[in-house]
Write a structure and sequence with these properties.
The complex is a heterodimer. By secondary structure, chain A is an alpha/beta fold. Helix content of chain A is about 35%, strand content about 25%. In chain A, the strands form three sheets. Chain A has a six-stranded mixed beta sheet, sandwiched between helices. Chain A has a four-stranded antiparallel beta sheet with strand order 2-1-4-5, covered by helices on one side. Chain A starts with 7 loop residues before the first strand and ends with a helix. The chains are: A alpha/beta, B mainly alpha. The structure holds adenosine-5'-triphosphate and magnesium ion.
C-alpha cells in the first residue's frame, strides 16, 4: 500500500436480495489515516457495506478495494490488514475475557511473551482487568462491547471497521471509545465506522456519508452537512402558562412542553425569521431563549425528505 | 500466508474446543452415557436370550459371550455418539458471532473446523477408554495381543476421524441446532442393521444383503477380529477404504459449506 493509495475505495457498489435492492451505487473513498462515518437510519445498508468490505458478504456489482486489495479476488490480502467489530457481539461467551484476547493474540501469531503482554495491556486499557478471569457470558453489555473492540485492536490492524460501536454504551464508555478511536487514528490507522448519531460522526469523523435506502444522499465534513440543514430549532421558555398559551395562539405550528413552559419552533436560519418570531412574543413573559443547530433528525429530514423514525418503521424484520 | 500457519491455527482452535468441552461438560457426559446404557441394556436385558443364539458356542453362548460379541458394536456406537455431539457443537458454534470474526481474520480458514475434529477425536479416545473400562467391569476379557489392540486403537481413531468430518458437515449444513442433532441419528441406528449386535445370517434375505454390505459392517468385523485375536481378512481393507472415503467426502463437503462467501 503506497502513501497515495486510499485505504478504502468503493465505486458503483450494489447489493440486492432477490428483488430488494439494498445498496444502490455506493461510492466512497477513505484516505489513509482518516475516519469516515456512515450515518444512516435502521435498514439504510450500513451493516451490508461493512460486511462486504470485511469479506463477510459477497458484493453485487462494483469495484471494491481495501488497502489496494480487491475484496473479491484478494480476500486474504484484505483480511491481513483489517480488523472488524460487527454490530453484534463477536466474542466467545464460553471463554473468559483473558482467554478471548489470548485466542486473538494466538491467531495473530504473536509469540508467547508478546501475546501475554498484549493481553494484559488490552485488559487494562479496556477496563476489563477485574473481570479478566470471568466468563464473557457474565459480562454486561458495555463490557462485552469493550472486549469485542479489544479483540479487534489486539491484532493491530491498519484499517478498522466499527459497526455501531457505541450502541448501548453509557456516556462515559462512549467517550472512552472515542478516545481510543482517536488514538488509533493518531497512529495512522484508518477507521470506517457506522453510527446513527450525528454527534458521534461529528466528534470523530473527517468525512461523513449519509446513507439512506442504500444510497449515499450526502457526503462531506460535519460542518458542511450541518450547513445544508437550515435553521435548526428555536426554543422559548416562558415565566408562566399564560405567556406560553398566548405564544401558542399566534404560533400554532409550534410544539409545546407545558411542564417546562417551553415552545419549540423550527427555524429557517434567517435573522428575519427569528425577528418575526420574537415580535409575536411578550417580552415580560419570556424567561429564556435558545437557538440550537441541526441534530440528526433535522439532517435526515432535510437530506432524505423523511424522518429517521419513519424509515426505521419501514424496515422489514429479518 | 495462511498456509504456513495451518498447524498453529488448528492447535489454537483445538485449545478453544477443549476449553468449551470443559466449560460445558453435560453434553459430553450424556454422549458417553449413551453407549454405556446400550451396553447394560444389551448385556442384561437381551444378553441371556441373544447369547443363546450365538453360533460357534457349544449349546449356545451365555451373557458373557454376548458381551464379547457386541463389544465392537458398542465401541462403534461410542464413536457415533461423540460424532453426533460434534454435529451439535459445530452447529451451535456457527450460530455464535465469533465465527464471523474468524472469517474476517487472515488465519488458516478451516482451522475452526479442524479444531472441532481434533477435539472430537480426543473426546472419542477418552470415551472409548471409559466404555472399555466399563465393559471390563462387566466381565469383558480379550485374548488379543498388544499389537491387536494397537491396531484396534488405530482403526477406532480412523473411524472417529471419518464420522467426525461427516458430522461436522451435517452441523454446517443444518439450519438449526435441532436439525443438527437429528440428522446424524442414522449413525446410531445403522449399527443395529450390521454385524454388530446379531450375526447377519439370522436376518431375512434383503436386510441381510444390506447389513453385509453397508460400510459399518467391515469396520465392526475388523474391530471384532482385532480384539479377539482372530484374522481380519479382506474386511480390514474394506474398513480402511470406507473410512478414507467417508472422511474425504465429509471433509470436502464441510470445506465447501464453510468457505463459500454468503451471498445473503
Ligand atoms: N439476508 C438478508 N436477506 C434479505 N434482506 C436483507 C438481508 N440482510 C439485510 N437485508 C436488508 O437489507 C437492508 C439493509 O440492512 P443493513 O443491516 O445493512 O441495515 P443497517 O443500516 O445496518 O441497519 P441497522 O441500523 O438496523 O443496523 C435492510 O432492509 C434489510 O432488511
Ligand atoms: Mg446495522
Amino acid at each position: 500500500m503506497t502513501a497515495t493509495n486510499p485505504a478504502i475505495e468503493v465505486a458503483g457498489l450494489t447489493k440486492s436480495y432477490g428483488e430488494h435492492a439494498v445498496l444502490d451505487g455506493v461510492e466512497l473513498t477513505v484516505p489513509q489515516g482518516t475516519v469516515y462515518a456512515l450515518l444512516g437510519p435502521n435498514g439504510a445498508g450500513k451493516t451490508t457495506i461493512v460486511n462486504i468490505l470485511s469479506t463477510l458478504l459477497a458484493p453485487g456489482d462494483g469495484e471494491i478495494r481495501v488497502a489496494g486489495f480487491d475484496v473479491r479476488r484478494e480476500p486474504a490480502g484484505v483480511r491481513a490488514v483489517i480488523g472488524a467489530t460487527g454490530q453484534f457481539s463477536a466474542i466467545d461467551t464460553l471463554l473468559t475475557g483473558r482467554e478471548n484476547l489470548r485466542l486473538m493474540a494466538d491467531l495473530t501469531h504473536l509469540d508467547r511473551a508478546a501475546a501475554t503482554a498484549a493481553v494484559t495491556m488490552m485488559l487494562t486499557r479496556f477496563d476489563l482487568a477485574d473481570a479478566a478471569d470471568r466468563r464473557a457470558q457474565t459480562y454486561s453489555g458495555g463490557m462485552k462491547r469493550r472486549l469485542d473492540l479489544a479483540m479487534t485492536l489486539i491484532a493491530r490492524p491498519q484499517i478498522i471497521f466499527l459497526d455501531e460501536p457505541t450502541a448501548g454504551l453509557d456516556p462515559r464508555s462512549r467517550r472512552n471509545l472515542w478516545a481510543i478511536v482517536r488514538e488509533q487514528v493518531a497512529d495512522g490507522v484508518t477507521v470506517l465506522l457506522t453510527t446513527q448519531y450525528l454527534e458521534e460522526a461529528d466528534q470523530l469523523a473527517d468525512r461523513i456519508g449519509v446513507l439512506d435506502n442504500g444510497r449515499l444522499v450526502a457526503e462531506g465534513t460535519a460542518a458542511e452537512l450541518k450547513r445544508r440543514v437550515p435553521g435548526g430549532c428555536v426554543s422559548v421558555r416562558f415565566t408562566d402558562t399564560a405567556g406560553l398559551a398566548a405564544a401558542v395562539s399566534v404560533n400554532p405550528q409550534a410544539s409545546t412542553d407545558t411542564e417546562a413552559l417551553t415552545l419549540r419552533l423550527p427555524g429557517d436560519g434567517s435573522i428575519a425569521g427569528l425577528r418575526r418570531l420574537l415580535d409575536t412574543l411578550d417580552d415580560d413573559r419570556v424567561a429564556g431563549l435558545t437557538v440550537t443547530s441541526a441534530d440528526l433528525d433535522d439532517v435526515f429530514l432535510a437530506l432524505t425528505g423523511h424522518a429517521a423514525e419513519a424509515s426505521a418503521a419501514e424496515e422489514i424484520p429479518a | 500466508m495462511s498456509g504456513t500457519y495451518t498447524v498453529r491455527d488448528s492447535m489454537t482452535m483445538l485449545r478453544r474446543n477443549l476449553r468449551h468441552i470443559r466449560r460445558y461438560p453435560s453434553l459430553s457426559i450424556m454422549l458417553v452415557a449413551q453407549p454405556i446404557l446400550f451396553l447394560l441394556l444389551f448385556v442384561y436385558v437381551f444378553g441371556g436370550t441373544l447369547g443363546a443364539g450365538l453360533p460357534g458356542h457349544e449349546g449356545g453362548g451365555n451373557r458373557g459371550d454376548y458381551l464379547a460379541f457386541i463389544m465392537p458394536g458398542i465401541l462403534f456406537m461410542t464413536i457415533a455418539s461423540i460424532a453426533l455431539g460434534t454435529a451439535i457443537s459445530t452447529a451451535t458454534d456457527m450460530t455464535t458471532g465469533i465465527i464471523a470474526r474468524f472469517r474476517t481474520m487472515n488465519i488458516a480458514r478451516l482451522s475452526v473446523l479442524t479444531g472441532h475434529v481434533l477435539g472430537a477425536v480426543i473426546r472419542t479416545g477418552c470415551a472409548v477408554v471409559i466404555v472399555t473400562a466399563f465393559a471390563f467391569l462387566l466381565g469383558f476379557r480379550s485374548d488379543a495381543a498388544p499389537l491387536g489392540w494397537l491396531a484396534a486403537i488405530g482403526l477406532l481413531i480412523l473411524i472417529a476421524f471419518a464420522l467426525t468430518w461427516l458430522t461436522v458437515g451435517m452441523g454446517l449444513a443444518a439450519d438449526s441446532v435441532e436439525t443438527a442433532s437429528n440428522t446424524p441419528l442414522f449413525l446410531m441406528i445403522l449399527p443395529f442393521v450390521s454385524s454388530g449386535f446379531v450375526p447377519t445370517d439370522a436376518m431375512p434375505a434383503g436386510l441381510r444383503q444390506f447389513a453385509e454390505h453397508q460400510p459399518f459392517t467391515p469396520m465392526i468385523n475388523t474391530l471384532r477380529a482385532l480384539v479377539t485375536g482372530a484374522p481380519t481378512g479382506s474386511d480390514r481393507w474394506l474398513a480402511i477404504g470406507w473410512c478414507i472415503l467417508i472422511a474425504l467426502l465429509g471433509y470436502l463437503w464441510s470445506r465447501r459449506l464453510f468457505l463459500r462467501v454468503p451471498a445473503t
